[in-house]
């Protein structure tokens, strides 16, 4: 409770303007008269968030840099949290990487140049987000990872609540994966990307509807992404999200048949509970309420769920994407490659067209009344709202600017990983369209295969438990930093090499990417390297699973098998061996659980569901598997040897490293996995065959380096992955 409700909105503007004044290195602007009468409770909240500084009286910000919020995820004592951002303007397309202080010491810290003309509250917040996301509010340890944007956004959210009781409202979508993966191979990439986008849009629509109806700016939306939404609302608005959730779930039941559900929970909070240790209890109670809501989803809609309707007489008449078989009017699509006619239900038809348009677009448009063109209708508080992407819709009522910060009234930013590979018109002879599975497999290096890649942040529940005990600001700063990687970072990695892949979804803390097998494999290495660089100064890690198949393989099976590969990676635990892993003493280690280490950071590449892991009983005294590799093993024992063999192949005038040689090395891997004692003899025999045909000393030196790798018992656990990679490239 911060002041009189009738002055709350004026105060919100003053708070946001004060942030811009500080970014510009100016003292308090006398025009911001409302700031002089700031309520004592809000001023005290500001001092608590900044570690004691009064930013409403402060002449300028401390001349220091923002520490990476990911550094709060440290469980090992020897992990160095020397990770700092260079103050730059966020553009929505470039991921900022933290660096050691020594690398930034020679760079002067300059005040930002933020436009300070009159604007509405949402535009002021956009300016703070783009210019103040990498600028700290304090130089005090424990507070130096809170940015100007996060600080003033939270103060504005509290200020908007006026004199009423505050409510922390959480929404969570369940059933996301089955909903996205519905469908076979035909049109799967379009519809899967469209369904993923629809769920993102649904949460942003929900937040925008509630804040607009309550007369609040978007500062009230604290977190949105990864199927989750978190808002801070006044008492007067607490009923709105619950009423809207009922309408949204009715719509979801009709369109998705109960597959997906929006759970909602709210909890009364005080400013003290938001920023102190008590927030852990608030967060736990919200989680319990959400779980209870999911457990009884659609309990008031049993009649609709169990209703007996009119159904199609044959499988030919059902929707050939989602297999819906009730009485609907089908929409026919003709496959341009085969000429076959596909019948879709109206919802899947809309998803198909949306997936077609999710290629080159700058805005997501919204209308309060139905537009003349195709649009998605979502239930709102005061009637339905309509949305679509792309095109030039100057008469739209509002919009989101995708992957950039646009300082215009009614335009909100939306950072999302939306990379999609599009063949040029010259290749297709028609308007650019997204590449389908057959095209992607055909364009892959070597074998005609597609790959499905999943990645997921490890131990996020453990990290969140630590963060929520430090208050809401620490949790939000950390979550935002993780979201940057899965939105901006993933897009940047795909765009840089124009990867032959499609991002199905990437947000929150996980991703799903499908495309040419060669590009998904190379992207696995690139994303792993990028995340390790981005998470420097922390113990945060990701695990990944990669599955390959023929282009005709059903997409939902691709997604399921890649999920199994990821689960295999995340469920694998190594023994707690501090000396071997360089952890020092295990006493008091946050990762230790009994005799196991809870750290993951594993990779399963080229997952083969029909083959079990091979557990070696002999030395070295570790469980060594063929499938599960640590990132260190992946980089050093897969990527580096594969590059070495490619260099061997590229030497002019030398004989080709033939597939028959690869077959011989596959036999070595089989012998080693079977604990056959003669595996080393087979290695020596294969190397001697190659050495005989080598013509230059350079080639022999490269071969000797390969021999060192093949004679290493620990490295042989990764040999099959290396050989599979090279074999697929040679086909």
TrEMBL record:
UniProtKB keywords: Antiviral defense, ATP-binding, Endonuclease, Exonuclease, Hydrolase, Nuclease, Nucleotide-binding, Transferase
The yes or no answer to whether the keyword S-adenosyl-L-methionine is present is no
Q: Where is the GGDEF domain?
A: 448-580
Transferase as a keyword of this entry, yes or no, is yes
Specify the domain of life of the species encoding this protein.
Bacteria
GO molecular function annotations of the record:
ATP binding; endonuclease activity; exonuclease activity; transferase activity
Matching entries from PROSITE patterns are given as: GGDEF
Q: Which InterPro entries match?
A: Cas10-Cmr2_palm2, Cas10/Csm1, Cas10/Csm1_subtype-III-A, Csm1_B, GGDEF_dom, Rev_trsase/Diguanyl_cyclase
Q: Which GO terms describe its biological process?
A: defense response to virus
Any one Pfam family match given in the protein's UniProt record, by short name: Cas10-Cmr2_palm2
Gene3D superfamilies per UniProt: 3.30.70.270
Family recorded in the similarity comment? Belongs to the CRISPR-associated Cas10/Csm1 family.
| Protein's name in the database | CRISPR system single-strand-specific deoxyribonuclease Cas10/Csm1 (subtype III-A)
Q: Which organism is it from?
A: candidate division WOR-3 bacterium
Q: What is the lineage of its organism?
A: Bacteria, Bacteria division WOR-3
């Amino acid at each position: 409770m911060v002041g009189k409700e009738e002055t709350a909105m004026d105060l919100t503007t003053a708070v946001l303007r004060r942030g811009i004044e500080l970014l510009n290195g100016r003292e308090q602007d006398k025009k911001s008269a409302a700031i002089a009468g700031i309520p004592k409770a809000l001023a005290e909240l500001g001092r608590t968030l900044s570690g004691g500084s009064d930013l409403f009286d402060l002449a300028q910000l401390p001349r220091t840099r923002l520490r990476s919020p990911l550094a709060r995820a440290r469980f090992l004592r020897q992990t160095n949290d020397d990770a700092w951002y260079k103050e730059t303007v966020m553009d929505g397309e470039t991921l900022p990487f933290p660096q050691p202080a020594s690398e930034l010491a020679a760079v002067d810290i300059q005040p930002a140049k933020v436009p300070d003309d009159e604007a509405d509250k949402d535009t002021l917040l956009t300016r703070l987000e783009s210019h103040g996301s990498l600028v700290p509010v304090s130089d005090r340890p424990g507070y130096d990872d809170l940015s100007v944007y996060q600080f003033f956004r939270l103060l504005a959210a509290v200020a908007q609540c006026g004199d009423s009781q505050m409510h922390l409202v959480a929404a969570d979508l369940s059933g996301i994966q089955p909903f996205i993966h519905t469908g076979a191979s035909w049109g799967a990439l379009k519809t899967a990307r469209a369904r993923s986008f629809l769920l993102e849009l649904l949460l942003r629509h929900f937040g925008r509807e509630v804040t607009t109806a309550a007369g609040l700016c978007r500062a009230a939306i604290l977190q949105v992404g990864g199927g989750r939404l978190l808002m801070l609302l006044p008492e007067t608005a607490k009923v709105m999200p619950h009423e809207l959730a009922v309408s949204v779930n009715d719509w979801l039941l009709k369109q998705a048949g109960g597959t997906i559900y929006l759970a909602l929970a709210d909890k009364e909070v005080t400013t003290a509970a938001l920023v102190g240790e008590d927030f852990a209890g608030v967060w736990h109670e919200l989680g319990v309420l959400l779980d209870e809501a999911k457990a009884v989803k659609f309990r008031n809609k049993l009649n609709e769920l169990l209703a007996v309707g009119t159904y199609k007489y044959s499988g030919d008449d059902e929707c050939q994407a989602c297999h819906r078989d009730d009485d609907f009017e089908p929409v026919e699509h003709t496959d341009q490659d085969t000429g076959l006619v596909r019948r879709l239900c109206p919802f899947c038809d809309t998803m198909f067209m949306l997936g077609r348009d999710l290629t080159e677009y700058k805005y997501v448009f919204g209308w309060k009344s139905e537009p003349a063109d195709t649009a998605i209708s979502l239930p709102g508080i005061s009637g339905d709202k309509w949305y679509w992407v792309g095109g030039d819709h100057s008469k739209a009522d509002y919009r989101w600017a995708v992957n950039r910060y646009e300082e215009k009234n009614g335009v909100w930013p939306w950072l999302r990983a939306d990379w999609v590979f599009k063949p040029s018109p010259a290749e297709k002879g028609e308007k650019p369209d997204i590449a389908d599975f057959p095209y992607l497999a055909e364009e892959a290096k070597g074998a005609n295969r597609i790959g499905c890649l999943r990645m997921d942040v490890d131990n996020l529940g453990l990290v969140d438990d630590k963060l929520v005990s430090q208050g809401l600001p620490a949790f939000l700063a950390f979550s935002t930093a993780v979201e940057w990687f899965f939105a901006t970072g993933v897009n940047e990695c795909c765009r840089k090499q124009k990867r032959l892949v499609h991002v199905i979804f990437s947000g929150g803390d996980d991703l799903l990417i499908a495309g040419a097998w060669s590009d998904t494999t190379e992207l696995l290495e690139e994303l792993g390297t990028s995340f390790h660089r981005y998470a420097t100064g922390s113990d945060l890690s990701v695990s990944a699973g990669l599955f390959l198949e023929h282009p005709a393989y059903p997409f939902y099976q691709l997604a399921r098998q890649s999920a199994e590969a990821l689960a295999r990676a995340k469920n694998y635990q190594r023994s707690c061996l501090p000396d071997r892993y360089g952890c020092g003493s295990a006493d008091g280690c946050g990762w230790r659980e009994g005799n196991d280490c809870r750290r993951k950071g594993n990779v399963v590449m080229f997952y083969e569901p029909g083959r079990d892991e091979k557990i070696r009983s002999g030395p070295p005294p570790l469980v060594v598997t063929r499938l599960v590799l640590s990132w260190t093993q992946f980089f050093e024992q897969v990527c580096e040897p594969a590059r070495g063999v490619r260099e061997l192949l590229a030497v002019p005038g030398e004989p080709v490293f033939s597939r028959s040689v690869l077959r011989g090395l596959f036999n070595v891997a089989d012998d080693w996995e079977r604990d056959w004692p003669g595996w080393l003899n087979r290695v020596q025999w294969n190397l001697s065959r190659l050495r005989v045909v080598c013509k230059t000393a350079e080639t022999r030196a490269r071969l000797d380096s390969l021999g060192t790798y093949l004679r290493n018992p620990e490295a042989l656990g990764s040999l099959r992955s290396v050989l599979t990679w090279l074999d697929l490239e040679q086909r």
